[in-house]
């Protein structure tokens, strides 16, 4: 729990849980206000749970949800009424505290000067400079401009794609006015979660503070984008703040659509249902696998596209290897159900992976899509290619969930027909807006959505963004490179590297690592080298074996 006092009678906080309420009461707060709608995130406690805890602690609780980008006058007026009528001090929370601090600022804008409000919120760690035009207008002072703060480059998303692209940009051009819009206080090394699920890595080793990994020279705007206006080169954040740009880099990621499978969300983390796609569940995967001595284990893979297309296979192989080492594999019925027509979608690497599936005695059901889960009954419902539904009992179920574009992207002018950021697959520039680029899991490029793909995309996006700033032709091209280091057993990895057409694109000589065969050296790369390449390479603008393909060398601008 992180309480950030803004005034003697008011504080804001990121998402709290019921377990935090006694501490809030002990700190002297009398009222808790929730500004976050239910259902915004997978691990978000519901407002009713916190309301019950507040009542038990003798605190007043108000539910005033503000949806991203809906900082309406009505919402501000309701919040102002709470400030006037509820017992203080008041603690308000949302996802990051930004919405709560912003609605407080707007509710106080007729009483306090914009300078005083911005100073108070900045002291609490909330940079609300994007609200200054609204604060000026509400205060009635003829100061400042109604124009939003503008950046040379504005990056949407502080995941692997956004940070790597920002680092590449700032490495090439120091002094660039660049900001990254990202709500999360922490960043996850998601490729490590399969190793956490296998019991080979601690969950804590995959998490770092966002503030510690942002490239030097990048400004962090702690918020989430609510809408895009490419015609005016502006974005609006969920708290109503507006920011302008000369070039926009969109790296928003995608959403894990747990609700697309009825019954799945409700049973995650219990009844033997788990997923390495959520970092906090990976230790549950580890415990399930270690504790299983007999029964039925079911692994599922959804329809493409989804990030890390080999993640379901990794969970399968590492679980089967654990059972083999424990001498219980023959007592466990292992089934892999995939929506695809074949076990692994890239032909060059399929023979090695098919061989391991046979070695572990895996039952493979292609064309089978998970459509429902009954956790308490331990039954999964799958739909076959001809539309029939079959039930599959399980003692352990590892789910790779359906994945989709973020709603804020799918409903924006940037989206293609499927909802992804619509970019040219080579230049990564938007197909309709010349000063917008997309990369990472949320864009329309038909490559494998992996961190390795981002490592190759980021320099391309950076070089081409600088060319756009300079008014020159785009020199860099992305070849569709993606990599799936498939852990097939402890100590061996099939290092699948390939491009748009599925043809192998090895980074190292094949005499050193033959990606079509399992290799201990590839395992060493994944376990020992890839994490530092991620943290100290990608995020520092160091492009080891990842420099962009250039159609020509641009002339440096004066």
Provide the fold topology.
Layout: E1 4-7, E2 10-13, H1 21-26, E3 31-34, H2 47-56, E4 60-63, H3 73-85, E5 90-93, H4 98-107, H5 114-123, H6 132-139, E6 149-156, H7 160-172, E7 178-181, E8 186-188, H8 193-197, E9 207-209, H9 210-213, E10 218-221, E11 225-229, E12 234-237, E13 242-250, E14 254-256, H10 264-267, E15 273-274, H11 282-291, E16 295-301, H12 311-326, E17 332-338, H13 350-359, E18 363-366, E19 369-374, E20 379-383, E21 389-393, E22 396-399, E23 403-405, H14 407-410, E24 436-438, H15 451-470, E25 476-477, E26 482-489, E27 492-498, H16 520-537, E28 549-550
Parallel strand pairs: 2-5, 3-4, 3-5, 6-7, 6-13, 7-10, 13-24, 15-22, 16-17, 16-22, 17-18
Antiparallel strand pairs: 1-2, 8-9, 11-12, 12-13, 14-23, 19-20, 20-21, 25-28, 26-27
Helix pairs in contact: 3-4, 7-15
CATH class of the largest domain: Alpha Beta
Number of domains: 3
Question: How big is the Rg?
Answer: 25 Å
CATH superfamily of the largest domain: FAD/NAD(P)-binding domain
Look up the CATH topology of the largest domain: FAD/NAD(P)-binding domain
Beta-strand content bin: 15-25%
Mean pLDDT: 92
Instruction: Give start-end ranges of low-pLDDT stretches.
Output: 141-145
Task: Give the CATH architecture of the largest domain.
Answer: 3-Layer(bba) Sandwich
Helix fraction? 25-40%
Helix tally equals: 16
GO biological process, one term: sulfide oxidation, using sulfide:quinone oxidoreductase
GO molecular function, one term: hydrolase activity
Protein name: Sulfide:quinone oxidoreductase
InterPro entries: BLH_phosphatase-like, FAD/NAD-bd_sf, FAD/NAD-binding_dom, Prot-tyrosine_phosphatase-like, Rhodanese-like_dom, Sulphide_quinone_reductase
């Amino acid at each position: 729990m992180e309480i950030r006092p803004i005034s003697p009678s008011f504080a804001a906080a990121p998402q709290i849980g019921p377990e935090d309420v006694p501490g809030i009461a002990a700190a002297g707060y009398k009222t808790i206000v929730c500004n976050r709608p239910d259902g915004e995130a997978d691990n978000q406690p519901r407002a009713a749970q916190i309301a019950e805890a507040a009542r038990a602690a003798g605190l007043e609780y108000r539910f005033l949800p503000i949806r991203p980008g809906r900082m309406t006058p009505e919402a501000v007026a309701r919040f102002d009424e709470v400030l006037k009528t509820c017992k203080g001090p008041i603690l308000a929370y949302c996802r990051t505290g930004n919405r709560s601090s912003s609605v407080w600022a707007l509710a106080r804008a007729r009483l306090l000067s914009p300078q005083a409000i911005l100073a108070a919120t900045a002291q609490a760690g909330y940079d609300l400079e994007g609200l200054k035009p609204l604060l000026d207008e509400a205060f009635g002072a003829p100061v400042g401009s109604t124009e939003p703060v503008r950046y040379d480059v504005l990056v949407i998303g502080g995941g692997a794609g956004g940070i790597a692209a920002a680092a590449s940009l700032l490495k090439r051009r120091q002094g660039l006015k660049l900001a990254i819009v990202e709500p999360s206080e922490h960043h996850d090394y998601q490729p490590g979660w399969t190793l956490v699920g296998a019991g080979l890595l601690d969950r804590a080793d995959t998490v770092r503070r966002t503030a510690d990994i942002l490239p030097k020279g990048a400004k962090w705007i702690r918020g989430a984008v609510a809408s895009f206006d490419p015609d005016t080169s502006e974005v609006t954040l969920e708290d109503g703040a507006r920011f302008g740009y000369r070039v926009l880099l969109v790296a928003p990621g995608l959403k894990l659509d747990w609700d697309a499978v009825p019954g799945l969300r409700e049973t995650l983390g219990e009844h033997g249902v788990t997923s390495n796609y959520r970092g906090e569940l990976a230790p549950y995967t580890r415990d399930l696998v270690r504790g299983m001595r007999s029964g039925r284990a079911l692994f599922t893979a959804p329809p493409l596209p989804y990030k890390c297309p080999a993640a379901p296979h990794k969970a399968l192989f590492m679980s089967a290897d654990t059972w083999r080492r424990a001498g219980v594999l023959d007592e466990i019925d292992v089934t892999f159900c995939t929506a695809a027509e074949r076990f692994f979608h890239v032909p060059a690497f399929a023979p090695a992976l098919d061989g391991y599936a046979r070695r572990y005695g895996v039952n493979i059901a292609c064309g089978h899509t998970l459509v429902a889960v009954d956790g308490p009954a331990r039954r999964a419902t799958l739909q076959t290619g001809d539309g029939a539904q079959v039930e599959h009992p399980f003692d352990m179920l590892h789910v790779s969930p359906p994945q989709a574009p973020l709603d804020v992207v799918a409903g924006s002018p940037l989206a293609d027909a499927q909802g992804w950021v619509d970019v040219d697959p080579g230049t990564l520039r938007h197909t309709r807006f010349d000063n917008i680029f997309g990369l990472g899991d949320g864009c329309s490029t038909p490559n494998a959505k992996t961190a390795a793909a981002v490592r190759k995309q980021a320099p391309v996006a950076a070089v081409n963004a600088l060319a756009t700033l300079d008014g020159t032709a785009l020199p860099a091209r992305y070849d569709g490179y993606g990599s799936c280091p498939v852990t097939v057993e402890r100590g061996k990895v099939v290092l699948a590297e390939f491009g748009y057409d599925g043809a192998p694109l090895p980074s190292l000589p094949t005499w050193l690592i033959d990606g079509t065969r399992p290799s201990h050296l590839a395992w060493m790369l994944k376990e020992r080298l890839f994490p530092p390449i991620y943290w100290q390479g990608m995020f520092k603008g160091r492009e080891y074996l990842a420099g962009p393909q250039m159609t020509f060398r641009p002339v440096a601008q004066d």
